[in-house]
Amino acid sequence: MLFNNIPVPTVVWKSRHDHLIMAEYNDAALQYTGGKILSLMGKTVEECNQNADRPISLAAGFSTARSGDDIDALIAKADRRMYQEKARMKAFAGNIG
Questions:
Q1: Of all helices (H) and strands (E), which one includes residue 27?
Q2: Which pLDDT tens digit goes with each residue over 49-88?
Q3: Which of 27, 41, 42, 58 has its CA 20 to 30 A from that of 17?
Q4: 48: number of Cβ within 10 Å
Q5: Whole-prediction pTM value?
């Protein structure tokens, strides 16, 4: 696992059908959760949130590339899209909360 030595709790989610499934985690996530993360492996975000004190929410940004595209510009575009999605999620949560 490439991110295992990162000191920040990190989790990898994989898309399966219409759901995100917890697929991997690093040692920092294991320590941070006191081992509770073990019981969440293979579960969807919705399943993980059923009894969560702090529910999981996800926002993602993406960008497509062609040969010769500037990587910094692509990352900046994906980052902008992610923050737009986070703002949309916060606005939606505010309307239902």
A1: helix 27-32
A2: 898 887 887 777 777 888 888 888 888 888 888 888 888 8
A3: 27
A4: 20
A5: 0.58
> Which residues have C-beta within 8 Å of that of residue 63, sequence separation ≥ 6?
74, 75, 77, 78, 81
Q: Domain range holding 24?
A: 1-58
Question: 28 with 41, same domain?
Answer: yes
Residue environment code for 19-37, b if the CB has 16+ CB neighbours within 10 A, otherwise e: ebbbeebbebbeeeeeeeb
C-alpha–C-alpha distance, residues 85 and 2, integer Å: 27
User: Which token pair is 70?
Assistant: 């500037």
Neighbouring residues of 62: CB distance < 8 A, sequence distance ≥ 6? 78, 81
